Predict the 3D structure of the following.
Amino acid sequence: MTCSSCNKQRADLHAKKSRLKSDQMLYLCSECIQKKMEPRYLVIMYGRDKGIDAKVVDIIKNRRYVGEDILAKEILK
């Protein structure tokens, strides 16, 4: 299986609830759990739904996601 955040094949995946959406279950590797990573798509979806709040700002400022920079136009409607 692959990690929901870094998309790498890992043997040490753990089922965890997302910090952004508690009803969303993720399979994260130990490294992503330690770094408090979230999937990029989930950060964007949460930002669009709830607005840019402290959770989203913290994740974006500290690059707690894998992938390209998240642009304001991806979050703002």
Summary: The longest strand covers residues 14-17. The chain has a mean pLDDT of 94. Residues 47 and 62 are 16 Å apart (CA to CA).
